[in-house]
Here is the input.
Amino acid sequence: MARFRFPPAASGFAAAGAVALAAAAWVVFPPSVAGQAVPARPALDLPLPWPAGGQATAEVQGLGSLGTHGERTPVPIASVTKVMTAYVVLKDHPLAPGDAGPRITVDQQAQDESTSAEESTAPVRAGRTIGQRDLLALMLIPSGNNVARLLARWDAGSQDAFVAKMNRAAADLGMTSTTYTGASGVEDSTTSTAEDQLKLAREVMKDEVVRSLVATPSLRVDGVPGAVVNTNTLLGRSGVIGLKTGSSTAAGGALMWAARTPGGALILGVVLHQNPGGTPSAGLQAALAASETLIAAIQQQLPAATR
Here is the structure.
């Protein structure tokens, strides 16, 4: 838990502030009973339009949980997996804002996988060198599975070794219902819950590089043909500033999202398992629509609820 420091002028209020912060921490990080996490109590019981199926959760930074709705069992999360991939890569190889990072050589495997019709990829060519930041962009913005695996091999030597890091990072964050089996999310065996993914969202949004990348609608990368377009079509609507989409037949549609209120508060949320069994594109559209409805309602109701 973060440590809070009170300036000298506020020392007279330190005790009261500590009590308030402890209460807020209880809301966001509730105690456990018999080793099991107790679901967070909503800080505000808003009548939100939660998705009819799947699972979803949301919180407001500095306020706490807005609740969790739907199933709480682990489900496939598809390319939302790449958020953890970015988290581990940046934990091992941190970047300063604006830093391009080390040049990484594209291997033959990443090029061969770039032509796959079975998954989302980025068109990279073997032998070219691309900066770490640009590779993170190619992974997070157009959701390049081949780039996720390339970054995993660069970081840990093999995807299997990198996956072990992913699972250790998940355990460190208290993501007790999460199992990663690949760096890209293409495997249906990578499963998690909305509540666990919200814990990750909290952490990655502390990184300015991640915040910048996931807020980018499109960009160009040297050596990659054409514009790289973000799969998160909610950017710029209802204050949305990121984070990451995911879709597959088993996962349906998924979205980890971040938005700002007009007053600047950060809202984080996760919507999973929308329209599973349908086409990935239909599932993604369902996740985007459900998330947009939820975000708009929070934006509308929050000001009156916090007066």
